[in-house]
Amino acid sequence: MLSIMLQDAGETLAETVSEEKTLSIYKLIMDGGLGGQIIIAILVVLLAIALYIYFERFFAIKAASKTDSNFMNQIKDHVSHGKLDAAKTLCMQTSSPAARLIEKGISRIGKPLEDINTAIENAGRLEIYKLEKNVPVLATISGAAPMIGFLGTVIGMIVAIHEIANSGGQIDIKMLSDGLYTAMTTTVAGLIVGIISYIQYNHLVVRTNKVVYEMEAKSVEFLDLLNEPI
């Protein structure tokens, strides 16, 4: 009799462990109810947008950061010998923000140095705008995603409290499971999306700043070239 009872207890324990092991993220989301599923769907869309923007900007900034180490030496040689057309051609063949700034400066040679500097600065603002395109969206997602997750938490707690109020004093944990699943899964999902977006945003900002620094350095070098005595 005792052995049978132990065997039954063992089978029950094994079934419980088996059920715990088969608990999946998908099941957690499905058990969270319609409110939790909508919140999770919104967060998945935000994550997809964040990943798209990150990789699109990453490769664009990476391409913009590629510069020929001999570029400025060639520009100096062409400008010092009066070969402005050759210098412009070299800039057009070099697809980089710095080259486009130098091209804008070369096209203004002959005008006052202040006008050349202003033209380069205006062109630089346009190049920075192109580099930072859609990057602020990542910052927005990094801040909005956790808040959306916390909204799911509030919805889940409301559902749980509503079930308690309608239970007639007989509280069952299964009765509260939908609200608790909604609260927990949406909070975790919101934080995950927010953290990923925040890291992506800061990484792109650092890489963009490096490109901007290169643009400024080459612009100053070009202006110094024009200031050199003939």
From TrEMBL:
<feature type="transmembrane region" description="Helical">
    <location>
        <begin position="135"/>
        <end position="161"/>
    </location>
</feature>
<keyword id="KW-0813">Transport</keyword>
<keyword id="KW-1133">Transmembrane helix</keyword>
<comment type="similarity">
    <text>Belongs to the exbB/tolQ family.</text>
</comment>
<protein>
    <submittedName>
        <fullName>MotA/TolQ/ExbB proton channel family protein</fullName>
    </submittedName>
</protein>
<keyword id="KW-0472">Membrane</keyword>
<dbReference type="InterPro" id="IPR002898">
    <property type="entry name" value="MotA_ExbB_proton_chnl"/>
</dbReference>
<keyword id="KW-0653">Protein transport</keyword>
<feature type="transmembrane region" description="Helical">
    <location>
        <begin position="181"/>
        <end position="201"/>
    </location>
</feature>
<dbReference type="InterPro" id="IPR050790">
    <property type="entry name" value="ExbB/TolQ_transport"/>
</dbReference>
<feature type="transmembrane region" description="Helical">
    <location>
        <begin position="34"/>
        <end position="55"/>
    </location>
</feature>
<keyword id="KW-1003">Cell membrane</keyword>
<feature type="domain" description="MotA/TolQ/ExbB proton channel">
    <location>
        <begin position="95"/>
        <end position="216"/>
    </location>
</feature>
<keyword id="KW-0812">Transmembrane</keyword>
<dbReference type="Pfam" id="PF01618">
    <property type="entry name" value="MotA_ExbB"/>
</dbReference>
